Amino acid sequence: MKEKDIVCKINVFDLSEVAGPVRHLVEEAISATERSYAPYSHFCVGAAIRLDNGEIVTGANQENVAYPSGTCAERSACFYAHARYPEAKFVEIAIAARGCDGKLVADPISPCGACRQALLEYEVLAGKGVTVWLVGRDKVYQLPSVASLLPLAFTDF
Ligand code: THU
């Protein structure tokens, strides 16, 4: 028997340190929270994906009175991105959330299991790590890939 460590390395930035194109992506994710439809949870999530064709595609969670029929921000963004630009590869994604008080959550949220699996599909298509930016009120976490959020993932059969 051998032990194997699975390590997930995260870079933690102050929001004020994040500048340039990444800051723009982060702001797009924050703006996308305004387009969330969350009358049941009042938890507004936004996601912004940068594609290798230069486009940024955003999504927000869309809830439904039949609760499981709703969709998270990350899946609304990645499905729309690939439906709109099927040839483009994903480069990076930023995810932000606002709570009931309307403020950005203090600590960054990270995608649910289903969204990790969905995003991973597009990372595989991209052929390299899709950088993940998780946005909180003061801190931003950077992860090198979706795979780092989903160790031992199911990728093929
Ligand atoms: N939600 C997302 O959109 N993304 C996440 O990463 C976690 C949760 C949504 C689903 C639901 O509309 C609301 O947040 C509360 O769970």
Key structural traits:
6 strands, 157 residues, 25% helix, 6-stranded mixed sheet, single chain, binds tetrahydrodeoxyuridine, 3 helices, alpha+beta
Largest sheet: 6 strands, mixed
Strand content: 15-25%
Q: Level of helix content?
A: 10-25%
What is the first-to-last residue Cα distance?
26 Å
Uncertain ranges: none
Trace the largest sheet across and list its strands.
1-6-5-4-2-3
Going by helix content, strand content and strand pairing, the class is alpha+beta
Molecular structure report:
With 157 residues, the protein is α+β, with helices and mostly antiparallel strands. The chain is 25% helix and 23% strand. It has three helices and six strands, in the order E-H-E-E-H-E-H-E-E. Helix 2 (73-84) packs parallel to helix 3. The radius of gyration is 15 Å and the shape is globular. It starts with 10 loop residues before the first strand and ends in a 14-residue tail after the last strand. Bound molecules: tetrahydrodeoxyuridine. The site of tetrahydrodeoxyuridine has 14 residues, from helix 2.
Short description:
25% of the residues lie in helices and 23% in strands. It is an alpha+beta fold and 157 residues long.
Write the topology of this structure.
Blueprint: E1 11-14, H1 20-32, E2 44-51, E3 56-60, H2 73-84, E4 90-98, H3 113-126, E5 131-135, E6 139-143
Parallel strand pairs: 4-5
Antiparallel strand pairs: 1-6, 2-3, 2-4, 5-6
Tetrahydrodeoxyuridine (THU) binds next to helix 2.
